[in-house]
Amino acid sequence: MLWIHSDSFHRLSLLLLFSFIHLCFQLESILLEMQDPKIGVKGTEQKLNISTIPHVIAGNDIIAWISNKMKTSTEEAQAFGTMLVAYGYIYPLQNHKKLVMCNDSSLYRFQTPYFWPTQKWVPDDSDYGIFTLLLHAVCLCFIQAHYNHLHEWLNHKWDFIVMQATEQYKAGKERKKPDRVVFDCQERAYWMVNRPPVSLSNSNMFYQQAIMRSKVKSSVSLGALVKYITTYKNHDPFLASCLPSNPWQTDHDAYWTLNMRRVEVPTKMRVERWSFSLFELLSDLRGRDDFKIFLKKEFSGENLAFWEAAEELKWGTASSMSTKAETIFKTFLAPGAPRWINIDGRTMGLTVKGLEHPHRYVLEAAQTHVFMLMKKDTFFRYLKSPTYKDIQKKALNPEQHNFSPANLEQNALNRSPGIHPIILWQQEEEEKAKVAAASAPVDVKAMMSKIDRKK
Amino acid sequence: MCDQTFMAATFGPCDSCSKPSPLMNIYIKNEATNYCSLCVEMMACQGLQKGETLESLKRESETLKKKLEEERNKLNDVELHQVAEKVEVLSALSIKTRRVLKGHGNKVLCMDWCKDKRRMVSSSQDGKVIVWDAFTLNKEHGVPLPCTWVLACAYAPLRSLCLIMNGYLGLDNKCSVIPLSLDKNENLAAKKKSVAMHTNYVSGCSFTNSDMQLLTSSGDGTCALWDVESGQLLQSFHGHTADVLSLDLAPSETGNTFVSGGCDMKANVWDMRSGQNIQSFESHESDINCVKYYPSGDAFASASDDATCRFYDLRADREVAVYQKDSIIFGASTCDFSLSGRLLFAGYNDYTINVWDVLKGTRATILFGHENRVSRVRVSPDGTALGSASWDSTLRVSWSFSTGSNYIFRFIKLLFWVNSRLVLEFTVAF
């Protein structure tokens, strides 16, 4: 959370560090050699205007060293040297706008390992500030993409990085103007080189995945969409009339009262809707209750109970996750558990292993398996069962309201406020608590101590 | 309703770092692998590999794009209007706007229905958020807020409200959740709890299946999933290259995906678990203002500034319909489906709401009444009414005037009467 709010200084630095480290694997060993006082490139102190810059190296010296070390021609060595400059390992002191390695006496210097360009964000350096602001605005969208992962990846090094950053910042304040100008060019060169490949390879990966993803023939998928519309046609209040009447039209809320959550007898339309799909049946809590009655008769209620518990884990608060995961394991997955669910060995193995470090999606595989089982088998048996047929017979078919204009006026004056949703929610919570208490395993010790105390 | 044919490993050990976490299914050199999102990012950041240059990557990108188009076209064996020919024509719709909710002092920017099918929350530019019982026209709660732009509001499944407030110039990007209670005089503004934070304005929010998690979309080009209680960021979604203006959660049994639309003219479908961008559709010609899932979860519609609404089929992976008319030149800012999915209600900047026949592609009817831009249309949870919010500071509720059996009864009565009159005439004549 905090990192999303810290300023771009941290963000930019992190990204550069990150990318830099990758490149490091290739060039680091070479650079270390180059900087070695004995076998590396010879450095001197150079006077530049009035300031003295220590440890400068000449371009031709560098190229000579590279061609000698790598046994390459001068041109190749120069190309390699240019790459070192372009990637920011070495920066030129004169001609700082041109990031190439020149085979002459032009001067260069080795870059410090951590490159913090946002030292420009010092209030008194307003001219630099504007320049970097523009740059950062462009780079920001790119940075954001990696920000969270960077934080995670570098988390353990965080304090170290911050410490380094503050030190660099302080050192940077004392830096001379030529160095600062050089940093500007480095920054620009860095973005020029490093940005395009990353976004391209990312989108290439996306295209590849898109090509490989299984698609369905248009006739099949469009046919399914049409089938959905045809199935629900009579249930759409904009296309067919509501029974007994649309509350908005007649100002009478019978339609809502008849379709409430805990109604004793549901309406025919509602029962018909349960037969459309398992998802409909489970989404309507009244339907879910009916399904539970059926499952109880079949002694196979553990699948639905597991599914409900998994849903609660997925959509619950982050803090409650580990306790919920533990309860679920004890109740459904442990060998010999009271409500052991029957899933294949591989899924069980994956789930149990995942539960060691609970994550909200740890039960995904098991939940999908259980849902598919219910959808393909239990659901159809439910529709053919006496439980369902019974509720179908009992279901209400309310008469269409036939209000005269006078009646309608009366209705408009007496619009019922209905039951407040919060009261309904409180009722639901009470019911859930009752059910949970009823099904919890009896704690024998507590019972005994209670009896003892009563005595 | 339709069989879920895509089953892939979604949680387990990552093929690269072996940590158990939500997985992304990707292809590396044509081989399917499952990486966690961190490893995917690290892989993507590797820079140029051996033998790769900027040019080669660009060429690869072009060939892949072409191949994707080819694959899509291979399965394109029929068009929506052809399939729709077998479907009966819609009977004449009679939709009337009969309820007007007045109470805001300035443009109403957003509204949302409560699960009880009659209450709604609305937010406006005057900094007020009002909870109405739209059936009785009572105002139940009024929350005055310190800043002026309350860009969006959402009702949670159980009892909370989510409000998105952006300070002047979008510098104060707060998303707060307020738990509602029965006490009408309670100071709700004091109970608000700050949840999401983005680096730019927050454009839309939506609760997931519970009051505990919140999805937000932002002008910084990302979407994010938050845990309400702790304010922790659970997952972030990157892929849009411009502001994300709207999002919608899939109403499917798996409930794991959502779609987002933005100013980069793209509509992206995301997996909430791994943060992966599963599908992307780029056919609009301007900013996408609103995206909404089809009730079955296998398709979605989008409304855009290019004055069209488009319909995308997720399983066929392409756009299947465009809803446009020469007479409509103003951008569409919002859209929503009716319960069966046959009708698409779209609110436009020319103060009207066009109702489209989703299958046939024609306009079924047009609703007038608002006196300024329509900022939001939402069908009530049981499909009985359509709520619309507008810059004219009112909210309106519209519904279909049914041709119920009372009319048929009256018609039969009339027939009898005519018949009896005719019989009388004839007997008189003879």
UniProtKB/TrEMBL annotation, chain A:
GO terms for cellular component: cytoplasm; neuron projection; plasma membrane. Residues 37-112 form the DEP domain. Transmembrane segments: none annotated. Residues 277-392 form the RGS domain. Keywords: Signal, Signal transduction inhibitor. InterPro entries: DEP_dom, G-protein_gamma-like_dom, GGL_sf, RGS, RGS6/7/9/11, RGS6/7/9/11_DHEX_sf, RGS_DHEX, RGS_sf. GO terms for molecular function: GTPase activator activity. It comes from the Eukaryota. It holds the Pfam family G-gamma. GO terms for biological process: G protein-coupled receptor signaling pathway; intracellular signal transduction; negative regulation of signal transduction; regulation of G protein-coupled receptor signaling pathway. Residues 1-26 form the signal peptide. This is Regulator of G protein signaling 9a.
UniProtKB/TrEMBL annotation, chain B:
Keywords: Coiled coil, Repeat, Transducer, WD repeat. Residues 51-81 form a coiled coil. It comes from the Eukaryota. The lineage of its organism: Eukaryota, Metazoa, Chordata, Craniata, Vertebrata. The keyword S-adenosyl-L-methionine does not apply. WD repeats lie at residues 101-133, 195-236, 237-280, 281-322, 367-397. Gene3D superfamilies: YVTN repeat-like/Quinoprotein amine dehydrogenase. Belongs to the WD repeat G protein beta family. InterPro entries: G-protein_beta_1-5 (IPR016346), WD40/YVTN_repeat-like_dom_sf (IPR015943), WD40_G-protein_beta-like (IPR001632), WD40_PAC1 (IPR020472), WD40_repeat_CS (IPR019775), WD40_repeat_dom_sf (IPR036322), WD40_rpt (IPR001680). This is Guanine nucleotide binding protein (G protein), beta 5b. One of its GO terms (biological process) is signal transduction. It comes from Oreochromis niloticus.
